[in-house]
UniProtKB/TrEMBL annotation:
Record protein name field: Guanylate kinase
Family of this protein: Belongs to the guanylate kinase family.
Gene behind the chain: gmk
Annotated Gene3D superfamilies: Guanylate Kinase phosphate binding domain, P-loop containing nucleotide triphosphate hydrolases
SUPFAM superfamilies cross-referenced by the UniProt entry: P-loop containing nucleoside triphosphate hydrolases
Organism from which the protein derives: Nostoc azollae (strain 0708) (Anabaena azollae (strain 0708))
NCBIfam families cross-referenced by the UniProt entry: guanyl_kin (TIGR03263)
SMART domains: GuKc
Binding positions (ATP): 26-33
Role played: Essential for recycling GMP and indirectly, cGMP.
UniProt EC number: 2.7.4.8
Length: 198
């Protein structure tokens, strides 16, 4: 991964003639990743910002497509250099959004979509107040637990941690511009498309 420095004089301030930043967030297991994948398939004109993470790849994940997988020391070096638009720690791992690529695509007039955790989404709202923020909600706590267990990727302890964190995150849904319940996948996807494209 090549991380470019922010161009001289560049800031995160926006101009009305530029593109738009769209932030998709919600608790772990709510289906935001699957919604994002389908959205990108149907709308290749969207620019998806691939996040950087220190966690290990899951089965089938590809470096540079799903995430950029790097070491903790490299991540901390990039933080110190100011290379992230936002970054956060979640479930013992770091996640961050590379700054330069996002700003370049917004300046070229594109819709840029981020799929990030709550803490990072709050950072984006602070630095990009005109970003459109969408919070994906589960239909119920029991359904969320079923989805997380259905992944078969976490220990019981990790699942309990994710569910506890999810309840806290759901309390923050009102902070976001739009809340969408992912009960019916196609309906949720259509709601996102309506928000983005009218």
């Amino acid at each position: 991964m090549q991380v470019l420095p922010l161009p001289s004089g560049a800031t995160t301030k926006e101009s009305p003639s530029l593109g738009k930043l769209i932030v998709l967030t919600g608790p772990s297991g709510v289906g935001k990743g699957t919604l994002m994948q389908k959205l990108l398939q149907r709308h290749p004109e969207l620019y998806y910002s691939v996040s950087v993470t220190t966690r290990s790849p899951r089965t089938g994940e590809v470096n540079g497509k799903n995430y950029y997988f790097i070491s903790c020391s490299k991540f901390e070096q990039l933080v110190a250099q100011g290379e992230f638009l936002e970054w956060a720690e979640f479930a013992g791992n770091y996640y961050g959004t590379p700054r330069a690529a996002v700003l370049d695509h917004i300046q070229s007039g594109q819709l840029v979509v981020l799929e990030i955790e709550l803490e990072g989404a709050r950072q984006i709202r602070a630095s990009f107040p005109s970003a459109l923020s969408i919070f994906i909600l589960p239909p119920s706590s029991s359904e969320l637990e079923k989805r997380i267990r259905g992944r078969g990727q976490d220990s019981d302890e990790a699942i309990a941690c994710r569910l506890h964190r999810a309840q806290e995150e759901i309390q923050a849904a009102h902070e976001f511009d739009i809340q969408i319940v992912n009960d019916d996948f196609d309906a949720a996807l259509n709601e996102i498309e309506t928000v983005l494209f009218g």
